[in-house]
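Worked example 3. Consider a protein that binds fe (iii) ion.
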Amino acid sequence: MHVHTTFSDGTFSPEEVVSYASKVGLHCIAVCDHDTVGGIRPSLEAGERCGVEVIPAVELTADKNGTEIHVLGFFIDWQDSALGQRLDELCRQRINRIHEMVAKLKKRRVNLDAEEVFKLSGKGSVGRLHLARVLYKKGYTSSVDEAFRRYIGNRGPCYAGRIDLTPEEAIDEIIKVKGIPALAHPGVMGRDRFIPSYVKHGLVGIEVYHTDHPPAMVRHYEEMAAAYSLLVTGGSDCHGLGKGRVLMGSTTVPYELVEKLKNARR
Ligand code: AMP
Ligand code: ZN
Ligand code: FE
Ligand code: FE
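Given these inputs, the predicted complex is written out as structure tokens:
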């Protein structure tokens, strides 16, 4: 399900995402770009042409006292204008954050122009993966991963947060547009202790299957899903070539889980 396009930090356009999905035999994908719905219309149109079902979705980045959480919203009313305004605001914060991180890097004699990062993100929402790719391209690090480890990872010296959206607000935003809120890759976030409060706040699903969840972790989140009556979601979280290799098709879920999400729609 969960994939990205060039409208956030993926390197495949919506058309490329859909045709790649078709090539690897996926019947359905969820376009979950970070804080933007810009890629949904072209993905839906490409999906029609290629016979791939596209779930209109989004991945919201939320933060509370430095605790970063990603909330997925499936089957959202992506044309809602209030949602659009909120997302525009979040994308502006993403731009400011890049400027902040570039300034912090400069203090460490890592010199780059924020415009280089914006050139890479183009019309999409800008993020750390774009910045990491510029750092790598300019030879400041020997890989994209090293850019996160040395500089801009969550505990890195050049990281900047400042996202004005709490996890609870993210859940609310998705519910407001009739979407199904699901916690993205909890194993990457490591904030299990907050899950009960998110459930109370209206969380419906949890991403059990994910590229970065090894089998023991999958079992752990399967148990959590059962304990809290959460719907199970999953996906490769493919970023095209953004993370070095194309992950699409490497993590799949049975279509039955998509049907359960559909049935949960209000
Ligand atoms: P942002 O949304 O700007 O906070 O950036 C977060 C995004 O960076 C995640 O969704 C991933 O796509 C990417 N990311 C985080 N850590 C790494 C890493 N170690 N290597 C590659 N990409 C990463
Ligand atoms: Zn991403
Ligand atoms: Fe994520
Ligand atoms: Fe993602």
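Take a moment to read the result before moving on. Residues 59, 70, 184-185 surround fe (iii) ion (ligand 3) (CB under 6 Å). The mean pLDDT is 96.
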